[in-house]
UniProtKB/TrEMBL annotation, chains A, B:
<feature type="modified residue" description="4-aspartylphosphate">
    <location>
        <position position="55"/>
    </location>
</feature>
<protein>
    <submittedName>
        <fullName>DNA-binding response regulator</fullName>
    </submittedName>
</protein>
<feature type="domain" description="Response regulatory">
    <location>
        <begin position="4"/>
        <end position="121"/>
    </location>
</feature>
<dbReference type="InterPro" id="IPR039420">
    <property type="entry name" value="WalR-like"/>
</dbReference>
<keyword id="KW-0804">Transcription</keyword>
<feature type="domain" description="HTH luxR-type">
    <location>
        <begin position="145"/>
        <end position="210"/>
    </location>
</feature>
<dbReference type="InterPro" id="IPR016032">
    <property type="entry name" value="Sig_transdc_resp-reg_C-effctor"/>
</dbReference>
<dbReference type="InterPro" id="IPR058245">
    <property type="entry name" value="NreC/VraR/RcsB-like_REC"/>
</dbReference>
<keyword id="KW-0597">Phosphoprotein</keyword>
<keyword id="KW-0805">Transcription regulation</keyword>
<keyword id="KW-0238">DNA-binding</keyword>
<dbReference type="Pfam" id="PF00072">
    <property type="entry name" value="Response_reg"/>
</dbReference>
<dbReference type="InterPro" id="IPR000792">
    <property type="entry name" value="Tscrpt_reg_LuxR_C"/>
</dbReference>
<dbReference type="GO" id="GO:0006355">
    <property type="term" value="P:regulation of DNA-templated transcription"/>
</dbReference>
<dbReference type="GO" id="GO:0003677">
    <property type="term" value="F:DNA binding"/>
</dbReference>
<dbReference type="GO" id="GO:0000160">
    <property type="term" value="P:phosphorelay signal transduction system"/>
</dbReference>
<dbReference type="InterPro" id="IPR011006">
    <property type="entry name" value="CheY-like_superfamily"/>
</dbReference>
Amino acid sequence: MTIRVAIVDDDELIRIGLRAIVGAQPDLEVVAEAGDGADVPDIVARTRPHVLLIDVRMPGIDGLQATRHLLATSADPPRVLVITTFENDEYVYDALRAGAAGFLLKRARPAEMVEAIRVIAAGDSVLFPAAIRRLAGAYGGSGDDRVRAARLTDREAEVLRLMATGRSNPEIAEHLVVGVETVKTHVRNVLAKLGCRDRTQAVIAAYESGFVNPNGLP
Amino acid sequence: MTIRVAIVDDDELIRIGLRAIVGAQPDLEVVAEAGDGADVPDIVARTRPHVLLIDVRMPGIDGLQATRHLLATSADPPRVLVITTFENDEYVYDALRAGAAGFLLKRARPAEMVEAIRVIAAGDSVLFPAAIRRLAGAYGGSGDDRVRAARLTDREAEVLRLMATGRSNPEIAEHLVVGVETVKTHVRNVLAKLGCRDRTQAVIAAYESGFVNPNGLP
DNA sequence: GGTCCGATCCCTCTGCCGGGGGAGGCCCGG
DNA sequence: CCGGGCCTCCCCCGGCAGAGGGATCGGACC
């Protein structure tokens, strides 16, 4: 099956280069191109790409915003591969946090680029699976049973996620920059809503209901 | 040309393991070892390694600070490969932002580790997806790694499994028909072997390493 | 304007959890 | 035979967790 690729970059030269590289592969196909992040929802809806190559830095709607919006609204979003010039671009990390599946350096060799696209399209492997899933899960809506049924508030969900990283109450407090007492209140509410006796049971519920996931897989 | 590798980790066991793995490769050579991030500038200046393996989490100067300092002061710094236990460790993001070239999971297989070192040493191919893919590599399906590496006894494994069902120590004791003190001893041993602070972290490790799984699947 | 809810913080108090010891019985293997 | 794992149980103790109260503030909603 050919992998459907969409390219979004404000620099036409980059688009031409990427199109040439991607188009030369028998198993890859460029199904859409755009020069503005604002077009992303439209082209995704129309062409249903498997992989979306998008520049983090663009005038108007940048890759970060586009990614976030996409994962928040699309029922079956493409895998997002962020394009960047500098490997230490701070936006990249924000993009990854927003749910991007990986990133690609503009100066990477063509063979590396297409390999990255294939890897990303395969979906189940790659970069920071757990972290990405967690973040994507926070924005997008993939299924929890018990946790979703608990109707946690944003803050409570955040606290549960931190509990599921093994943090103690003081550590969560530090991370959220609030008092320990506040965290304890949230924890108490989470436990009550989930019907759990202690934080360990809550973390188990989080795993079992897919609120958090081990090493990958939706 | 042999790739010169320096290893910095506060855990001597990890250092021994890495040294054994790296040293066994004909094209890799361990030129320095340290247990404290404070030693990094010194060993880098003295031994001029190509690749620096460093643990993100260490008492005193951690990998993050060491990396930052190194890249800020060294004229020709080594490529930094960060060592971490959890792939979603928040420090990892910070380390990458600080200039690390990639990260290595402690539970990765030796072949994946040396491959990662070679990729990093090659320098220009800093493509994360490709590198990470080799690291995360064959992860899926059956991978106890962390838990298996802990070499738990039968009883300890049984206790961990019960911990992962959300049982308290008294409940585990009742289930196993032994005293609570016995259970506490097993729990203590499990925590020590897994390097966890509390039972919640142990349960997370059990899920993340596939020792137990949500809802099904091998 | 009043009500409800979410987020924040504070207090007390019970108790299990987890660390650090030690100690006896068992079976296996050198 | 005797050492070493493993399982079992015991004591002491500091500390955080979790229950149960109550309080303030802001925004959303009516």
